[in-house]
Automatic annotation (TrEMBL):
Coiled coil: none annotated. Its EC number is 4.3.2.7. It comes from the Bacteria. The keyword Lyase applies. It holds the Pfam family ChaC. It comes from Pseudohalocynthiibacter aestuariivivens. Keywords: Lyase. This is glutathione-specific gamma-glutamylcyclotransferase.
Amino acid sequence: MADASLWVFGYGSLMWNPGFPFAERQIATLSDFHRCFCMRSIHHRGTEQEPGLVLALDRAVGASCDGLAFCVAPEHADETLAGLRERELISSAYLEAELEIKLRDGRLVTSITYIVDPDHVQYCGGLPLEEQAGIIAKAVGGRGPNNEYLFNTAAHLEELGIRDPDLSWLSGHVRALSG
């Protein structure tokens, strides 16, 4: 890794809390995946007894996900990758993949991207939005309330001008359930 820059694609908390130094940041699009609350969180935003939900990239041919691409300078690549693996691969529900993304400026780059393993016990793709809202409104884990994760991600997407109708709907519904 030491001889080349590392690109990392963020679509959830990595967008507003990357936790690593970066030399460049751009809006980017990943094809054939969509962002959704399809992974039960038993560490960060829930517990084993009362799991929360976290976002993951779920494969969906023809779909796309807009997020942020971070370019990490070569001298920080190894340390960044080690930190990401410690953070993202905590329960093996995410798979590390090298996928092509399209940067807003038109460049195509290969990025480290964490996608959900649909065969993992924590995978819960296809939950109705109402059910997701009920879970997110109540769950709390080691990194805080599940609704905080939703609200931070939705707010950051809005700041970036990225439309995500499901997250917007969930934010409104979870606020009503929590209030």
